[in-house]
Design a protein that fits this description.
With 163 residues, this protein is of the alpha/beta class. It is 39% helix and 19% strand. A five-stranded mixed β-sheet has the order 3-2-1-4-5, sandwiched between helices.
Amino acid sequence: MIVITADKGLCGAYNTNILKHAFEFMAEKTDASVELNILGKRGRDFFRRRSFAVRHEAINVLQKPSFADAAAIAGDVIEEFIAGRKDQVWIVYNEFKSVVQQRVVVEPLLPIKKLPGFRSGIRLNTCTMNHRRRFSTICCRAMWSRKSSGLSWRRRPRNRGRA
C-alpha cells in the first residue's frame, strides 16, 4: 500500500483522514500481510509508532513533485508485483476538489484491468511499459493532488481599514 501524507502537521484533518482510511483498510485485510510505502513525514511518524511493516518511506518528496520521483516509486512497486512478491498494490491519498471539498481516495493500482485494445499477440515488454506509464501517471496525479491541495497557503493580509 502506498500512503501519501503531508510533511507538515498544520493541515487540519488532511493527514488524519488519510491515516484513518489507511488504518481501516489494513484492519480489513487481516488475512494478508500489508507492507507500506509511505510518502510524507506525518504518515511515517504515525506508522512508526505502531507495529506495521514499513517497506519504504520518503520525506520531502512532495515539496516539488515530479514525474521522475513518481516513476521511481512506481518502478520499485512494479518490480515487486512482477516478481510475484506482491499480489495487489493500493494507494491512499487525498483528492483535492476545492477548498471546501476534499475526499480521501483508496484505490487499487495493481493489478491493472485489461487495457483497451490489448491483443494476446502484444509482447510482454510493450504491455509492461504501458502498465508502468499508467501506474506512474496515477502516482504523479496523486502527488500533484496533494501539492495543489492548498496546504502551502499563506494567509492573505487583512484589509486594515481600507475600503
